[in-house]
What we know:
Layout: H1 23-31, E1 34-38, H2 66-71, H3 73-90, H4 97-107, E2 111-116, H5 122-126, E3 131-133, E4 136-143, E5 149-151, H6 152-162, H7 183-186, E6 201-205, H8 214-226, E7 229-233, H9 240-251, E8 256-259, E9 272-274, H10 278-289, H11 295-298
Parallel strand pairs: 1-2, 1-7, 2-3, 7-8, 8-9
Antiparallel strand pairs: 4-5, 4-6
Amino acid sequence: xxxxxxxxxxxxxxxxxxxxxxxxxxxxxxxxxxxxxxxxxxxxxxxxxxxxxxxxxxxxxxxxxxxxxxxxxxxxxxxxxxxxxxxxxxxxxxxxxxxxxxxxxxxxxxxxxxxxxxxxxxxxxxxxxxxxxxxxxxxxxxxxxxxxxxxxxxxxxxxxxxxxxxxxxxxxxxxxxxxxxxxxxxxxxxxxxxxxxxxxxxxxxxxxxxxxxxxxxxxxxxxxxxxxxxxxxxxxxxxxxxxxxxxxxxxxxxxxxxxxxxxxxxxxxxxxxxxxxxxxxxxxxxxxxxxxxxxxxxxxxxx
Length: 303
């Protein structure tokens, strides 16, 4: 029997309540050496919903698993039809104030690095440079047969050519770039093969049920060891891929600070959880620290 990945989490204990006091966050950043761990909640203000917050996509959508994607052509057709439509919106998303604040902290030497669980590339669009994409990036495509990497925008062009007139109305867009479509709307959508070997193409992201590459995990663990504190932004920490770094930091007696409106699976390890919107909270902290946001990055224009 195939095991399904952990998609939800219910607190089994009384957790400390959230606060609106940003002073511990500002204090940690002022000392420098802070490692950021960001999740889907950081991108909601860019129009990309999160998985588990209020109105989160898991209430209506079960993400594609690696096992389902590789098991059959029908699952891949469904995935690529939905993802192709979602990319039209997802690929045009621009960084919000939260991303810009993180980039400002980095620019002023307050961060030791950024680990993101997001696949949207918005940290980089905001100007952050030292970003580790824990779950990969939707802007790239990999062949499962030969390993060739290619551009998502080029694949989008090929899918447009192979599916003229494909214009279904989606019920919603999800954090993984997937759009909500019925099987009838998917129809006989044509999937594009690898241009190098004709193999199966997959977005260069870690699907649910797929392991994060060990070398990437080791790199992240090294960043945690070298950081003075860990600042979690917009993640429920439901899945172990992010929670393990919170546990590692706590076990090393490094302060863990969380900014997330809802309780998280890492709250019991945290010095504080600030229950405020990310954009508001981080802009406020940036103002206190004298780290202005980059107005040029804010005026995002994508082709």
